[in-house]
Every structure is written in structure tokens, then in C-alpha cells.
Amino acid sequence: MRKGVEDGVRAMAGARRSLAASDAATPAFDLAAFLPYRIVALGHVMGETLAEAYADESVGVNEWRTLAVIGQSRDSGVAARDVVARTPLDKMAVSRAVASLEAKGLIARNAAANDRRMSCLSLTADGRRVYERIVGIAVDYERRLLEALSTDASGALESTLRRLEACASALAEEG
């Protein structure tokens, strides 16, 4: 996912260069109505609200994202690079989150079965309990958000998000 974010930034820079080259006049712009801004702002509000809800677990946002990826792997575990690929976190943020989670006894680092040079991250029993509690909080939060939408609107939102994700990825690949 991080690669997608970086690609998106490059695509936006390319779009800015194209706009600057083709039109010297600055177009009318309303940041509050700008779709990328609105999506990021909404994500920030939702992320912070959810973080407050699970603050009792003494896990920060980056730690939760890391814990979630590891928790979804069930018993197989994951490499830190997989956490980077599946979250909007960079290598350094994942490294810090892994170190913190390991120090708290929530994850364990073991040599991967297929490559002893690579470490594999998995939840400890305490980590599994924290993961399951936060998943319960997250699922409830999502349910409460979706209650604001009808079934049709919820389906339309899902479809729209998929289309926007595909379009953003395609634009990022164009560079």
C-alpha cells in the first residue's frame, strides 16, 4: 500500500507540472471540497476516534496497524516488509512499531521457516488478546459508521471506493 501512496504522490506532482505548463492562470480551488483532502481528513478523524477508543490497550495507531496485519496472518506470521506493503506506514515507522510491540510482549520475532535469515512476526498470547479486543472495538466502530447509510448507499460506497482505488492506482502508474 505504501508504494501506492508514493506512486500517487508522483502522479499528483506530474499532474501539477502538466497543469502549470498548460495553463498559467491558477484555477479556482476550494481545499475543503477537494476530494483527496476530504478523504484524508475523514480518514484522520476516523483513525483518531478509533485510537481514542482503544487507548486503554496502550497501543498507538502505528502499533495497531502493525498488530492488525500480524493478527490477520493467524499462525503463519509475517515479515516486517509485508506490514510495510499492507499499511500506509514506511519502513522506519514499522520498525519502531515492531520494536515497541516486542518490548510490550505483544509480538514475537522468530526466524522464518523457509529462510532463516528473515524474521517472522507473530502474536504472543497477550498480543492475540489485545488484537481481539481492538478488532471488536474496530468492528463496532465500523458498524456505527455504516448505520448512517442505507444498505444501497453502503453498497454504493463500497463500489465507489473500489473504483477510486483502481483509478488512483492507474494514475500513479502513469506517473
Quick overview of this protein structure:
The chain has 175 residues and is mainly α. The protein is 67% helix and 6% strand.
Which features would summarize this protein structure in a list?
7 helices; 67% helix; 6% strand; mainly alpha; two-stranded antiparallel sheet; 175 residues
Describe the structure.
The chain is mostly helical and 175 residues long. Helix content is 67%, strand content 6%. It has seven helices and two strands. The protein has helices at 2-22, 35-53, 61-72, 80-86, 91-103, 125-146, 151-174, and strands at 107-111, 119-123. A two-stranded antiparallel sheet has the order 1-2. Strand 1 (107-111) and strand 2 (119-123) form a beta hairpin. Helix 1 packs across helix 7 (151-174) and helix 3 (61-72) packs across helix 5 (91-103). The mean pLDDT is 88.
List the helices and strands and how they pair.
Layout: H1 2-22, H2 35-53, H3 61-72, H4 80-86, H5 91-103, E1 107-111, E2 119-123, H6 125-146, H7 151-174
Antiparallel strand pairs: 1-2
